[in-house]
Design a protein that fits this description.
Blueprint (H helix, E strand, L loop, with lengths): L3 H11 L6 E3 L6 H14 L1 E6 L7 H11 L3 E6 L2 E5 L12
Parallel strand pairs: 1-2
Antiparallel strand pairs: 2-4, 3-4
């Protein structure tokens, strides 16, 4: 579980990132979750944007993605979700 200080640190790191995944009309698929897990292993911190045509609200999508990918939900801002998961092999981010 992340502390408030760690979440603030990760939010500042994520500010400059572009979303690398989009959740749209299809919702959350197994394939999407697998790609997110792989991306988290490589980068540790990612942004995901939720498109206007997504059937679920952003909080539901954020909860589902973070639980299925076993990642920490850092932030939901607008239609963008920020996820963090410590990498096993490529650890880059050192939390305060």
């Amino acid at each position: 579980m992340l502390t408030g200080k760690q979440k603030r640190f990760l939010r500042s790191k994520a500010h400059h990132l572009n979303p690398i995944f989009q959740v749209g009309k299809g919702g959350i698929s197994e394939n999407l979750v697998k790609q997110i897990v792989d991306a988290l292993e490589a980068r540790e911190l990612i942004k995901i944007s939720i498109l206007q045509n997504c059937e679920y609200d952003r909080d539901t999508v954020a909860e589902e993605l973070s639980s299925q990918a076993k990642a920490e939900l850092v932030q939901v801002i607008g239609n963008t979700i920020v996820l963090y998961k410590e990498s096993k092999e490529k650890k880059q981010i050192i939390l305060p």
